[in-house]
Amino acid sequence: MKKFAFWAMMTLSVVSLTSCDKDDDHVRVSADLQAAFDSRYPNASRVDWERNGGFYEAEFVGNGYENKAWFTPDGAWVMTEYDIPFNQLPQAVLDAFAASAYATWRVDDVDMIEKSGMEMIYVIEVESGEREYELCYLEDGTLLRENTEWGDHLPVAPGQTADVKALVMEKYPQAVILDIEEDRRGIEVEIRDGGRQKEVLYQKDASGVLTWVYTMYEVSRYEMNNLPAGVQQALTDLSTSGMRVDDVDYFETADGNYYRIEVDKWGADKYIYVGENGETVQVNL
């Protein structure tokens, strides 16, 4: 947890580091942008502005903790990431975490992410030995993401957010959009559709046009017996070889659909990709 005292001691070392995603460190902002920030966070202290891609990012201290807020150049707020104590998580999130496989892992950091037009997200970073995971929950305890690799949580510009929503609703007209986030792969959208939680990935080309890459969802334990015979055989072969199957995910793509089988091999997560016909597409062991 990044309390203010710790943040203050680390200021000099942080100043010396420059992220490759940031254009300028410690920049001056317009009076309108500063006014928009002051209106939203009147009690903020130690405010430090940086240019981060197409946004202005304000690092500031509020309630004794370090936070980050993103604004567009014209002063429109898009996202804030708050550092919070573990015990301030919603009870549903605490209960979901306590019932998870990570309940005994060490909690390294906890954040609350507020986005314009999206539901609140709670992020718990945990570690056990050399293994680290980032768990993202909705306020009702729903697990949105379970990442082994992650970077900064980056917002999507308001105009592009509208474009993404339109594309999702065109493909999944009954879906409920839970979250939209940009990462190194593209723009990731979490939705609820047909009783399932799905991850939809879009990528931008050089001109900013969005293209659908895949839609992925987890296969439940109750559905395992209904998988194609070739996929079931692949699961049987893995089990008899001594590997433990953790999860099976289904991917829909423009080039064909496939299953990703996650196995635990010597304490590390590995993947085997199997087509709907049972043919192994790729092995990453």
From TrEMBL:
It comes from Bacteroides mediterraneensis. Pfam families: PepSY_like. Residues 55-144, 164-200 form the Putative beta-lactamase-inhibitor-like PepSY-like domain. InterPro entries: PepSY-like. It comes from the Bacteria. This is PepSY-like domain-containing protein. Gene3D superfamilies: 3.10.450.360.
